[in-house]
């Protein structure tokens, strides 16, 4: 497991990569301890990611980061959101669980579950 500063740096670099790829710019990126979600996007454009997301596989990190950044374009989980997610993260469904499954309120969980 990486030290927290390294985890934050790693996740911020991935957010920068995905921000450019998706042509979006969050107003702020936070990386902090989160126990119920892997990430969130506020209406003010703040992206918050769980520090321990950096310990998960790269594909899952990409899913969570792309998911949250896409909310800067589409605020809901409707057809447009899912279509955009499928374009950018084609295997997103392997990381997605129904809302509330395995106690995950953010509608996603890593392959091992938290």
Percentage of helical residues? Answer: 25-40%
CATH architecture: 2-Layer Sandwich
Residue fraction in strands: 5-15%
Structural class: alpha+beta
Domain YgjP-like metallopeptidase: 8-95
InterPro entries: UTP_pyrophosphatase-like (IPR053136), YgjP-like_metallopeptidase (IPR002725)
Protein name: M48 family metallopeptidase
Pfam families: YgjP-like (PF01863)
Please describe what this structure looks like:
The chain has 114 residues and is of the alpha+beta class. The chain has helices spanning 4-22, 58-70, 79-88; strands at 28-32, 39-41, 46-50. Helix content is 37%, strand content 11%. Strands 1-3-2 form a three-stranded mixed sheet, with helices on one face. A hairpin with a 4-residue loop joins strand 2 (39-41) and strand 3. The two termini are 16 Å apart.
Provide a compact summary of the structure.
The chain has helices at about 5-20, 60-70, 80-90; strands spanning about 30, 40, 45-50.
Protein topology:
Elements: H1 4-22, E1 28-32, E2 39-41, E3 46-50, H2 58-70, H3 79-88
Parallel strand pairs: 1-3
Antiparallel strand pairs: 2-3
Pfam family, one: YgjP-like
Domain YgjP-like metallopeptidase: 8-95
Protein name: M48 family metallopeptidase
Descriptive keywords:
UTP_pyrophosphatase-like; YgjP-like_metallopeptidase; 114 residues; disordered C terminus; 3-stranded mixed sheet; M48 family metallopeptidase; Zincin-like; alpha+beta; 11% strand
């Amino acid at each position: 497991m990486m030290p927290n500063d390294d985890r934050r740096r790693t996740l911020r670099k991935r957010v920068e990569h995905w921000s450019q790829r998706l042509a979006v710019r969050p107003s702020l990126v936070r990386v902090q301890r989160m126990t119920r979600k892997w990430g969130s996007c506020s209406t003010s454009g703040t992206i918050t990611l769980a520090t321990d997301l950096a310990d998960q596989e790269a594909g899952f990190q990409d899913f969570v980061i792309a998911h949250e950044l896409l909310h800067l374009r589409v605020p809901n989980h409707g057809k447009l959101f899912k279509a955009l997610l499928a374009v950018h993260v084609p295997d997103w469904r392997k990381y997605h669980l129904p809302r509330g499954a395995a106690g995950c309120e953010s509608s996603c969980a890593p392959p091992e579950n938290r």
